[in-house]
Amino acid sequence: MKQRIYIDTSIVGGYFDEEFKEATLKLFERLDNHEIIFVVSDLLDLELINAPLKVRELLLKYSADKFQRVELTEEAVKLADTYISEKVVGRTSLEDCRHIALATINKVDVLASWNFKHIVNLDRIKGYNSVNYD
Fold first, then answer.
1. Is residue 52 pLDDT above 90, yes or no?
2. How much is the pTM?
3. 23: closest CA among 101, 134, 120, 122?
4. If we measure between CA atoms, which residue out of 57, 34, 48, 42 comes closest to residue 6?
5. Are 105 and 99 in contact (CB under 8 A)?
């Protein structure tokens, strides 16, 4: 079974960012080689609206079978709100919390992000996990 990797907006943008390009291209190569499937959300779609054109159009190069689409549900909204009420992060990180909640509720194998402040941060991950395990 293919590994399911939830991607946030930073992964799409990382394709064009010199700092993250090499690792991001490897991830997309795995997608091209049918090794993985990207889990993408309507939240990602909304965030890409204001991105540069080349970032907005990147995922359009791929067929729909490369993706599993998920939607922001009431359950995900509530979980994201709990991350904030439990002070894992502040209210300004609501969208990041929603990405994490979507990945959690949809039981993805990996959440990929270049957001080291609010998502890929060991202290934050411990906080999210403590909420998830309660």
1. yes
2. 0.91
3. 120
4. 42
5. no
- Give CA–CA dist 81/32, Å, rounded: 35
Q: How many CA atoms lie within 13 A of 12 on its CB side?
A: 26
CA distance 77 to 81: 6
129 vs 29, higher pLDDT: 29
Q: How confident is the model at residue 48 (pLDDT cuts 50, 70, 90)?
A: very high
Helix residue ranges, H only, the chain: 9-14, 21-32, 42-48, 53-58, 74-85, 94-105, 122-133
Q: What is the DSSP letter of 50?
A: T
How many CB atoms are closer than 10 A to CB 70? 19
